[in-house]
Design brief:
The complex is a heterodimer of chains A (295) and B (256).
Chain A lengths: L1 H36 L4 H5 L12 H32 L4 H14 L3 H15 L6 H25 L3 H9 L4 H30 L2 H4 L32 H11 L5 H35 L3
Helix pairs in contact in A: 1-11, 3-6, 3-8, 4-6, 5-6, 6-8, 7-8, 8-11, 10-11
Chain B lengths: L7 E12 L2 E12 L3 E5 L6 H8 L9 E9 L2 E2 L7 H7 E4 L10 H11 L5 H14 L3 H4 L12 H13 L5 E5 L7 H14 L4 E5 L3 H7 L2 E6 L2 E7 H6 L4 H7 L5
Parallel strand pairs in B: 3-8, 3-9, 6-7, 7-8
Antiparallel strand pairs in B: 1-2, 1-4, 4-5, 9-10
Helix pairs in contact in B: 3-4, 3-6, 4-6, 6-7
Classes of the chains: A mainly alpha (295), B alpha/beta (256).
Bound molecules: adenosine-5'-triphosphate (ATP) and magnesium ion.
Chain lengths: 295, 256
């Protein structure tokens, strides 16, 4: 009887907690979207921002956010997955490996403003690049890489050991086993880690302030030559992202329609993260189904 | 007691194995005869799995293992450091206690080994897969769903699929560590019948806790106790009049 009551109480408590989480989430979402979408229009999304006058859009900021995300993931994913595979499969268990693991964890938990300052020293001043997309992406890599390494390592460790043994017992080499058995089985978990890391990149402002900068040069979207100064694809140009834009218009406040622009930007930011999430998951599950032959 | 034969595929001499300080196999002499079924019995922890895993050197996955002595496979000592593990394991296949198909389609599971060992032509792969699935009597059950996930098969089917996967790399020895301990009686029977058929073409070493199983399928039976090979002889002899009283004690259920 007692156990039954305890069970019912526990169930009730968890339902209440779940309810609180869901309602906070829905509340936050609808608040931001409600206030934001009054200002979002096609024009808002397709005009460049303005420094002084009202009526500016977020075209370049939106593009910059996705582009910085893309460049960051381009660096982070191969390095992070490679590092995770090394930690899980090649590093000998022992003191040194544990020290490396602790370092990775510390790196992952550094405040992003500190990473931003580090990036300023390393990728802006020392290299002499100035504010660049590449500098920003490298700074973001600094705190995303450890997450990716850790996630990959855990994902590989959680693949059942008998799968690995079965493969090795067939005379398959260690590397081929990693490639054809371990990584595909670990793929869904690695993907989730990647999406979380991407979300962090997308919303990051502090680490980008001093690395990718607060401005965007005049861009010509018909210019696809990545070495041209006015091409949006140039990785050696400054780039203000959406999250940084929200921060900067609110602190500088030179435009008269600050509220409208920042509310609109916030809504677009949230929606982009959401869409990106769904898209990545959908593509991921397609890949996973193809590999595992499930329908 | 040392038996000598002329047609041995494995000839193990004075094999010792330590897990760190734990002496798990003690001076084992063990000939394994071509195209026979050799059963290994003994109480839990006596070293059966350890022994069978030395034959394809899967034991090397365990850290801190030390070995001494000789394991001659077709006259070559595989404990020699120059041994090519890939080559050895292609020839000495293994089936585990629990069916462990890869999370891939039925076809891809069987084709996995040959594909990575360099066979790329679809036609050739299909031949190998069909042959292996027929050998394990699974073909009729799965021929209409070769592209379905292997994890959707029943436990007994999964175990037969794993045997097919091992056969597909064309081994000449198949090691089985308690292959039926997780299966129902009917699937167990199917695997036992399969073993009797496979022995036409393959040498089989099987670890089992089931005395009747050893008696039904094997030609030779080896009894291990605390890391020692106590007795190795014709199965009929072991189960009718074993020479060592410890063997007799174990078989009649007095301990173990
Ligand atoms: N990885 C390992 N590290 C250390 N000791 C081990 C390891 N594997 C096995 N042992 C020890 O070696 C001895 C033999 O183990 P083994 O697994 O070969 O027994 P077994 O005969 O297969 O038993 P079972 O019938 O329970 O499967 C046992 O005492 C066991 O504790
Ligand atoms: Mg065992």
């Amino acid at each position: 009887m007692n156990a039954k009551v305890a069970d019912r109480v526990a169930t009730g408590v968890f339902i209440v907690i779940a309810f609180i989480i869901v309602s906070v989430l829905i509340g936050l979402f609808s608040f931001i979207l409600y206030h934001g979408f009054q200002h979002v229009s096609l024009k808002f999304l397709t005009t460049p921002s303005s420094n002084m006058s009202a009526g500016g859009g977020i075209r370049d900021q939106l593009f910059n956010s996705f582009y910085v995300l893309f460049i960051t993931m381009l660096i982070t994913v191969p390095l992070g997955v490679g590092g995770g595979v090394y930690m899980a499969e090649y590093a000998r268990p022992g003191r040194i490996t544990n020290i490396i693991r602790s370092c990775i964890e510390v790196l992952a938990s550094l405040p992003s403003i500190v990473i931003g300052l580090f990036g300023l020293l390393m990728f802006v001043t020392l290299t002499g690049w100035g504010y660049t997309i590449l500098g920003g992406a490298l700074a973001l890599t600094v705190f995303n890489l450890p997450v990716m390494v850790r996630v990959t390592e855990d994902a590989i460790h959680s693949v059942p050991r008998d799968l690995k043994e079965a493969s090795l017992a067939l005379g398959i080499t260690h590397w081929h086993t990693i490639k054809t058995i371990l990584l595909p089985s670990a793929f869904p978990t690695i993907l989730t880690g990647g999406i979380l890391a991407a979300g962090r990149v997308f919303g990051e402002a502090a680490a980008l302030l001093f690395t990718a900068g607060l401005s965007t040069p005049r861009l010509d979207y018909t210019d696809w030559n990545p070495f041209s100064q006015i091409s949006p694809l140039n990785i050696f140009r400054p780039a203000e992202t959406l999250a940084v834009h929200i921060w900067s218009i609110n602190t500088q406040g030179l435009i008269p329609d600050v509220d409208a622009v920042s509310n609109g930007s916030a809504a677009v930011l949230i929606l982009s993260v959401l869409l990106f999430n769904l898209l990545a998951r959908w593509i991921g599950s397609l890949i996973h189904k193809k590999v595992t032959a499930t329908k | 007691m040392v038996l000598t034969y002329t047609n041995e595929i494995f000839d193990i001499n004075d094999l010792n194995l330590w897990y760190a300080d734990h002496h798990a196999l003690k001076s084992i002499h063990f000939p394994i005869i071509k195209k026979e079924v050799t059963a290994i019995i003994g109480p839990s922890g006596c070293g059966k799995s350890t022994f069978i895993k030395t034959l394809n050197l899967m034991i090397k996955m365990v850290p801190n293992v030390k070995m001494s002595g000789e394991i001659n496979y077709n006259g070559k000592n595989i404990l020699n450091s120059k041994m090519d593990l890939v080559e050895l394991r292609k020839n000495v296949g293994m089936v585990f206690q629990k069916g462990n198909p890869f999370p891939q389609s039925i076809f891809d599971n069987v084709a996995y080994g040959p594909r990575i060992h360099g066979i790329t032509k679809r036609k050739h792969l299909e031949e190998i897969v069909i042959k292996a699935l027929m050998d394990v009597a699974l073909w009729d059950e799965v021929k209409d769903r070769l592209n379905a996930p292997a994890l959707g098969l029943s436990g007994g089917q999964q175990q037969r699929l794993c045997i097919a996967r091992a056969l597909a790399t064309k081994p000449d020895v198949i090691l089985m560590d308690e292959p039926t301990s997780a299966l129902d009686p009917i699937s167990t029977l199917a695997i036992e019948e399969l073993i009797l058929e496979l022995k036409e073409k393959y040498t089989i070493v099987i670890v089992t806790h089931n005395m009747q199983q050893a008696a039904r399928v094997s030609d030779k039976t080896a009894f291990f106790l605390m890391g020692e090979l106590i007795e190795l002889d014709e199965t009929s002899k072991i189960f009718s009049k074993p020479e060592d009283e410890r063997t007799e004690g174990y078989i009649t259920g007095r301990f173990g």
